[in-house]
Amino acid sequence: MPKENVKINPPSLSLAIDLGASLTKAIGNRYQDGGVPTLICMEPEIADVSSSSIKVYERQKIGGTDPENRCWVGIGNEYMAVGFLARNKFGGSALLADLKYASAVAKILGTVWVMKEHLGLGQKFTLAMTVLLPPSEYEDRSRLEETLKSALSRYETPSGILNVKLVLFDAKPEGGGIFLTRLQKIGEELKKKVCAIAMVGHRNASVLIVNRGVVNPGKTSEYGSNYLAEKVAEMCSGLDPEDRNLIKAIVEAGDNVEPEPFRKISKSRSAKEQQQDIDKMVEATQIARDEYIRTLTRWLNQRIPKDTEELIFCGGTAFYLRTALEKHYAEVPIIWNADIEIPPELDMADMGAPRLGDVYGVFVSFQKHLQICCLKPLHKTEPVENLNQTPISALKNGAPAAEALKKDDSNPSNAWSNIIAQPASEQNDNASNGSGNTQPLALQRPNRPPNTPPLKKRKP
Questions:
Q1: What is the average pLDDT across 31-39?
Q2: Residue 102: pLDDT band by 50, 70, 90 thresholds?
C-alpha cells in the first residue's frame, strides 16, 4: 500500500485493473514516456493447464490474433490460460464461487503481459499498479502485493520470460474509483454530507459509506446479476447460469422482459417447441427479476443509512436495474456513476461509464498520486482546465498523459489513502453465507469479448 513519503523513479508502465466477474478491465499507459492511456478487456475465465498443453497449443496454432485472445502465464511449474484462451480452448471457469484474490494473481500477470504487448514494452520493465477488490477481500491486499512482487519478477508468457519490478502497488475497494472521482468534483462539500456508493456488478453487490468525508468499511453480498441468472436457470431446464448468452439475453430483454432475445438461447429446433422455451424463459425471468430486485433492495436498505443525502449507483447491473432502483429510492438524490465521462477515444467499444467508471476513476486518481511519488518530474506542459474531460484531448495537443492528469486543486493530497481498512471478518456481510520505443503510442481499440451484453443508451 503506497505511503505518502514513498519515492520512486517514474515507472515504465502505470496500470489500473478491475477484476470484474464478467470482464477484466484495465487501463494503462507508458508513464515514463508520457504515453496515451490504453484500455484492454479480457474474459474473466482462467484454467490451470500443463506445460505440455501449452507447448502443443503454441506449436499447433495457426494465424494471428490479439494478445488478449492467446494469453497464458507460467509461474515455476504451474501454468494458467487466461481470458479467451481459457474459455475457448481449455474449458476455463470464472470461479464465481471463489474469492477474487484467489484468481487475481494469474489474471493480473496475464493483464500485465497483454498491456505490455499493446504498448510495445520490452521483456524487462518497472510497474506501478492499482487494483480494485471487493470490500470483503480488501484486507488481503498486503498478501496480494507480496505474492505479485514475487510472481512478476520472473514468469513465462507467449513472448518469453518477463521480468517486471513492481515499484508501487495499491488496492482500493470496489467503488473506490467512483469515490475518488466524486471527491475531486465536489471537494469540501463531501465532508458535509452522508454519501452511499452502491456498486452492483455481475458477481456481487457492495456498498461504501462516506460519512462527512470519512470512508467507512464496505460491505459485500452475493447479489450481483449472477444471482438473477441462477434463479432463471433453476426454473428452466437446460440453462447454465454461467453461460454468458443467458445473462446477455436477460439484459437485452430489458425492464419489460421482451421475448425475442431468448430465441437465441433456445435449444429446440421446431418452431412450436422453441416458442414454448421462450415463453418459459420469459416467465422465469419476470419472476426471478422481481425476486432479485426485492432481495437486492432489502439488502441495500439494511446497509444504507437513513440519513443518506446522496446515493451513487455504479456497475453494469445497477444500470440494468436503473428504472427499479430510481423508483425504490425516489426520496434520495441519485447520481449515476459519479457523473464520470469516459473519453470516447478510450471507450471505443462503447461500454460506457456503468462498466468502466470505477476503473477509469481509479486510474485517473492513481496518475495524480504518481506525480507525488515520482522523484523525477515528467515533461512540463500547460495546466489542464478539467481533469475528468481532458486526459485525451490534452494528449491530442501534444501534452504527456501524466501532465494532463497533474492538476489537483480540489482533491486533497491525501485523498488516495483516505479509504480505510477493516478486518475481513467484519467486512464480509453476505446475507446468506526497458521500453523500446519512446514515442507515445496511439490509443488501442479494445478487443470486446464475444457475448458482452451491450449497454443501451439512455436519454438524460
A1: 92
A2: low
Parse the chain into domains and list their residue ranges: 13-177+340-427
| 183-189 contacts at long range (C-beta below 8 A, 24 or more positions apart) | 183/411, 183/412, 183/415, 183/418, 184/365, 184/387, 184/388, 184/410, 184/411, 184/415, 185/338, 185/339, 185/388, 185/410, 186/410, 187/410, 187/411, 187/412
pLDDT tops 90 at residue 4: no
Q: Residue 76: name the closest of 159, 143, 161 by CA.
A: 161
The domain at 13-177+340-427 falls in which architecture?
2-Layer Sandwich (3.30)
Please check whether residue 100 is in contact with residue 134, taking contact to mean a CB–CB distance below 8 angstroms.
Answer: yes
CB 83 within 8 A of CB 42: yes
User: Using CA atoms, how far apart are residues 219 and 137, in angstroms rounded to an integer?
Assistant: 10
Distances (CA, A) of 217 to 140, 166, 295: 14, 27, 22
Dump pLDDT digits (tens) for 115-155: 999 999 999 999 999 999 887 777 788 899 999 999 999 99
pLDDT score of 201: 92
CA dist 290 and 84 (Å) reads: 33
d(C-alpha 209, C-alpha 455), whole Å: 27
**For 268-285, what is the mean pLDDT?**
94
- Among 105-119, 197-211, 333-347, 424-438, whose mean pLDDT is lowest? 424-438
Distance CA 399, CA 318 (A): 35
Angle at 369 between CA 34 and CA 188, to 5 degrees: 130
Q: Identify which has the larger pLDDT, 297 or 456.
A: 297
Q: How confident is the model at residue 397 (pLDDT cuts 50, 70, 90)?
A: very low
Is the C-alpha dihedral spanning 165, 387, 41, 444 positive or negative?
negative
Question: What is the pLDDT at residue 34?
Answer: 87
Closest CA to 67 of 124, 111, 19: 111
The x, y and z cell numbers of residue 195, run together, are 454519501
Q: How many residues does the chain have?
A: 460
Q: What is the pLDDT of residue 323?
A: 97
Per-residue H/E/C for 331-367: CCCEEEHHHCCCCCCCCCCCCCHHHHHHHHHHHHHHH
Residue type, 272: K
In order of 251, 266, 426, 440, the CA distances from 25 in angstroms are: 20, 30, 28, 21
- Residue (of 149, 104, 100) closest to 1 by Cα position: 149
In whole angstroms, give the CA distance from residue 453 to residue 388: 26
